[in-house]
Every structure is written in structure tokens, then in C-alpha cells.
Amino acid sequence: MPSGKTIKLILYEVLQFAALSVPVFVVMERFASLMNDVRGMDLTAYWLVVAASIAYVTSVTLLVWVPLKYAILRKRRFITEITQWRPTALAYLILCTLPCFAILISSSKVMSSRLIVLLDHFTELPVSLVLFSLICVDIIERIRPCRLTGQCKASLTGGTNYFQVYVISISPRTAYLYSSPSRPQFFSGPLRFLWARDGRAEVLVDSFLFWLDTVEIVRVSGEPSVFYSGWVFPIYILAFLSTFRLVIMPQSPLLSFAGFALQDFPFLIIRIALIVVFGYVTPVLYPVKNLLVCLTFVYFTFLAKLRIFRGESMF
């Protein structure tokens, strides 16, 4: 019987391969159906696109995905020296997300040029599947060190640590505080389950929240007034550029700058432009969030270090 590590390895690799191949097949099948409708129910065009998708997935799997996974599992030197970014995530973006977004942009161009208005705007299922697969790859990469069973006491999100505080009285007027790392497991009583934490569950929630802004900007492209216009191109391009944050390690200091440069600042510009041109196609909450993130990043990274802000009399 295979060991638990072997079962976990097989499960993770199967899920990641499904996240790589299924979005490509779904997007290409929808594009094949679109070409079939455009060419007057021509099944030849449909099966050519389907055959191309099968050939593409087979080629990238044998030539790129499998060799990369083999090098990672065998812990080759050029792989083990990589500590600030994730090769699997980069390969996934290039092999899956990029061609899927390219096909979605092409489908928008075909539909707008032929004045085709469909009840299914083509983008909802494929885009949701592409982004969901992206999130799944992120989650798998982050929980890979953990076991599938039992408790995971480590915090994988890089969030706030909990501390247990001890008060040591020295005199009636003075006291010293001593803090040491503490886990929720230290609490007892009938309601101790309220303090329970698990790093794997935290990663699941954190990953979805991490990609929520990208999901919203892509959702805007599905609006009919936006989808059949030229604005769909910069939206998909900026959304794809924001996905490169997946390549950076979650604990890397570079992630903060990448969030500012690849997501919040360009998303702020494109959302303001969309609101000016199309009205409130996106909730105002999102550009406000992008603005606040940009302002706080610039202030705490650059302005707060200036001499004028470092005086002791400043608040």
C-alpha cells in the first residue's frame, strides 16, 4: 500500500495537471463552438480547434510540464537554489493562463466584428474556470509542506502571530510585560474550539481574497457594453499581468511592490477610465481600495522615511 506522502504527491500532481489542462480544453471548446456558428455550422472548423487543443496540451505536458516536475521532485540544483519565486507557478501562467486569455480576447474580437450577440457571452464559465484553476495552483503550492490529515499548527499565510502575555509585578507602581509565542491550543474550557486555527484553512481563505480584485476586473470585461468594445483588450492584459504575483513566494518582501505595480496602480487607472466611459460598471469600492493601497504604499515606503516625518514631536 502506498504511503501517505506518495498519496499526497499523486493527489497534488493530478490536481495541478487538471488545473493546467481543463481550462485550455474548455476555452478552446467554447472558441470552437463560436467558430462553428460564425462559419454557418461548419463542423470542420470545430474539430480542427478541438484537435489543436488536444495537440497543444499533449505537447506542453511532455516537453515542459513533466520535465519541470521531474526536476522539482528530484531536487535538481538549479531548482533548489530558487527561493524567491515558484517555477511551477511561472510555467502554469505561460502554458495555461496566457493562451486562455489570448483565446478569450480573440473570441471577443470575432464576436464584435461579426456583430454576434449571444445570450452566453462566452466569458463567464471559461474565465471563472481559468481563475479558479489559478487559485487552486496557488493553494496547492502553499499547502504542499503540510500533511493532508491531522492538525497543521503552522501559519502558512504569514499573518499575525498570537502571543501569550505574562505580567510580572516589580512594585506597586511598575510592572514588566513578558510575551512569548502561544497557540490557540493553550486555551481550555468548553469553548476552546472557538480558538481553533488551521494553516491549511487560512491559506484557502487567504488565496481567494488575494485574487478577488483580479476576479472583479475580469468580471467587468463580461459586461456587454465593455465586452463588445476595445476596452476588453487592456482589461485582459492588465489582469494577466496581475497574475504574475503568483510567481513570487508568499513570504517574499517583493510581493508588496508587485501588488502595487502589477495590480493596484494599473487597476486604479483602468477602473477610473471605465467609470468615466461606461458609468458604474464596477463597484466604487474597488477603485477606492486601489487608491488607498497606492497611497499607503507610497507613504510608508517613501514619504515616511523623510526627515520631516521622523521628528519625535510628530504623531
From TrEMBL:
Keyword check for Transmembrane helix: yes
Which N-terminal residues, if any, form the signal peptide?
none
| UniProt entry keywords in alphabetical sequence | Membrane, Transmembrane, Transmembrane helix
TM ranges are: 9-26, 46-68, 89-105, 125-143, 226-248, 291-309
Q: Which InterPro entries match?
A: Uncharacterised_FAM23-like_TM
Query: Its domain of life?
Result: Eukaryota
Q: Does the keyword section mention Membrane? A: yes
User: PANTHER family given for it?
Assistant: TRANSMEMBRANE PROTEIN 236
Q: What is this protein called?
A: Transmembrane protein 236
Q: Which organism is it from?
A: Myripristis murdjan (pinecone soldierfish)
